[in-house]
Design a protein that fits this description.
Number of strands: 21
Radius of gyration: 22 Å
Helix content: 40-55%
Shape: globular
Distance between the termini: 27 Å
Strand content: 15-25%
Length: 478
């Protein structure tokens, strides 16, 4: 059964992510396009460097072409933000990226992009699920046209230099002159992913000295998770600190999440990246307006926004909620603690290439290292420490927890006074001292996500332990 989560459909290769299911998803998109009231536009189709991505993109294209649609097909791997930018720039109704983003190497998936270059909203993915179920009940197999034949008939169209417009758009929004003056030395780790090329072009154009690691394609990502977290960037941290680089930059597998390493090897968290960029955009570039975060992202943004006389808007996890709220409120920036962000006026989706270029601009303009900038912000906003953990549970265990925490709304015994509780997405507890704890089911992996933020790490870890004790007691009872 194909089901869509917060980041599209993702499945284990050979188990869920197989030819049959990929074609079923493609037929559902073709059926959705057929429901429209105007002539069908081309569908943009990209793919990342994962195992089976290129083949899956061809299978997907064959079904779309079999239904009479035209497909704009990439000749090479591409980051997800490029596909989003192309959909927006050309006014297309739909785009598709074959990717599982930051998931382990044994996963792959399909990400849908809709008009304006935004993540497909829930009403679109629910309709796709319904169309797949309808086709199955009717015994209707996907219509398909062999790829070579689709090429001959002109239904497969290869865009000429699709990276140019995307890279030029970013370059036009960045103070390249400031970056040229500094002459930064940067070590770049694209984590074997598809986001490598456009950032290299931007940094070289800005006269940075750039070296790289993990640049070549590796469908298994060197045996590591293709997510730019602190543990997965150990090599980047060591080399930046010992070889005299000014900055380390890392992307996830499809180029929509950003990781930063300071010159002393310090890992700059995704929360800190958001805080630093909001501060820079608001105070130094004069971009006035609120900020948006999801419910598992730092409340430092709330305090920073309040210091500006602005508001911080909270939304459920899933970047489509972040981008929608940015548009509704004309927010300066929106992001999440997992490393994704975007800013006003750019594509309404996560883009690590633009975020990285903007971060480099901020460091050059302020003439300080990220740690120096953050030190001043911590003095202003107070200390914040976030602790995160994930639990792998069976479906039966997940149902036990869902009933207890979300239906009956039982809470663990916490050591600090509770102010209020939100069930917008899982269970989020707000404490009277401004700290919080979240327990929610992942929308991209079979995991229970726990996170907490407090003035110090021990207090945040205590909140997580309270949730874990409660969960383990529930499971043990059954």
């Amino acid at each position: 059964m194909v089901r869509f989560g917060t980041g599209g459909w993702r499945g284990i290769i050979g188990q869920d992510f197989i030819d049959e299911n990929i074609r079923r998803v493609a037929q559902a998109l073709a059926d959705l396009v057929a429901e429209g009231s105007r002539p069908a536009l081309p569908v943009m189709l990209g793919f990342d460097r994962r195992f089976l991505s290129f083949d899956a993109a061809r299978w997907f294209a064959e079904v779309l072409c079999g239904n009479g649609l035209t497909v704009w097909f990439m000749k090479r791997t591409a980051p997800t933000p490029l596909v989003m930018h192309t959909v927006k720039a050309h006014g297309l109704d739909f785009g598709v990226q074959v990717t599982a983003s930051h998931n382990p190497a044994n996963y792959n998936g399909i990400k849908f992009i809709v008009q304006g270059g935004r993540d497909a909203p829930e009403e679109v993915t629910l309709r796709l699920e319904a169309l797949m179920e309808q086709a199955e009940k009717e015994g209707r197999a996907p219509r398909s046209l062999p790829f070579p034949q689709a090429e001959e008939q002109g239904q497969i169209v290869y865009l000429k230099n699709p990276f140019n417009g995307y890279i030029d758009d970013i370059a036009g929004k960045i103070r390249m002159d400031l970056i040229r003056e500094r002459g930064l030395r940067v070590l770049f780790d694209p984590m074997h992913g598809s986001g490598a090329y456009p950032l290299m072009v931007l940094l070289y154009t800005a006269r940075c000295t750039v070296d790289h690691i993990h640049f070549e394609r590796d469908a298994y990502f060197g045996g590591n998770m293709p997510a730019p977290g602190e543990m997965s960037l150990a090599e980047l941290r060591q080399k930046v600190a010992t070889r005299g680089y000014d900055l380390g930059i890392a992307f996830d597998g499809d180029g929509d999440r950003l990781g930063i390493i300071d010159r002393d090897g310090r890992y700059v968290t995704a929360n800190e990246i958001l805080v630093l960029l909001y501060y820079y955009l608001h105070e130094h570039k004069g971009w006035k307006g609120p900020v948006v975060r999801n419910m598992s992202t730092t409340h430092m943004l709330d305090r920073l926004a309040a210091s500006f006389g602005e508001e911080c808007h909270e939304v459920p996890v899933g970047f489509k909620h972040v981008s929608a709220k940015i548009e509704q409120t004309d927010a300066v920036l929106g992001g999440e603690s997992s490393g994704g962000l975007t800013v006003r006026g750019h594509i309404p989706g996560k883009d690590s290439i633009y975020a990285a270029a903007l971060f480099v601009e901020a460091v050059c303009a302020l003439n300080q290292s990220p740690s120096q900038i953050l030190s001043g912000l911590y003095q202003k906003l107070g200390a914040h420490a976030m602790v995160e953990e994930s639990l792998l549970l069976t479906e039966a265990q997940k149902e036990i927890i869902r009933r207890d925490l979300l239906e009956r709304r039982n809470l663990p015994a916490f050591s600090h006074a509770v102010d209020r509780v939100s069930y917008l997405d899982g269970s989020k507890v707000y404490f009277t001292d401004g700290s919080f704890a979240v327990c929610r089911f992942s929308g991209t992996e079979p995991l229970l996500r726990l996170c907490a933020e407090a003035p110090d790490e021990a207090q945040a870890a205590g909140y997580l332990q309270s949730y874990k004790n409660h969960i383990l007691a529930l499971i043990k009872q059954k």
